[in-house]
Amino acid sequence: MVNLTAVNPSERQRRTPPVEVMVDTGSEVSWLPKKELLDIGITPEGKKRFVMANKQMIERDIGYAILTAEGYSTIDEVVFAEESDMSLLGVRTIEGFSVMVDNIGHRFVATTSLVC
Q: What is the pLDDT of residue 56?
């Protein structure tokens, strides 16, 4: 678990309080509570469909935010999570941070970005 903050890219003084999220390398994108994102002026830019671990298909709003955690930041797509959804830090955000997850030490380890 880490504390993740979303920042409105258009009004950087508007940010969510830190939200405790589960680091989930099985999730493509990060999920934050819909209310928190709307409160800082991040608006939905579209919808995406997701297949949950139990094979259920759901649809959620998505938008864009600057995401920060443990001194790292990136701009990324973010899912507007409903109250019944978990708050997650997804693998695309982890890659944007240019870190690897140390599962034993429960921390991020800085890496270099790959160019292929």
A: 92
Q: Residue 95 is inside which H or E element, if any?
A: helix 91-97
Asked if 38 and 55 touch (Cβ cutoff 8 Å), the reply is no
Pairwise CA distance, residues 101 & 26, whole Å: 12
Q: Is residue 64 a contact partner of residue 75, using CB atoms and an 8 Å limit?
A: yes
CATH architecture, domain defined by 2-110: Beta Barrel (2.40)
pLDDT at 114: 67
d(CA 33, CA 31): 7
- Whether the predicted model's global pTM rises above the 0.85 cut: yes
Q: Using alpha carbons, select from 37, 41, 38, 34 the residue that is nearest to residue 82.
A: 34
Q: How far is CA 19 from the centre of its chain?
A: 10
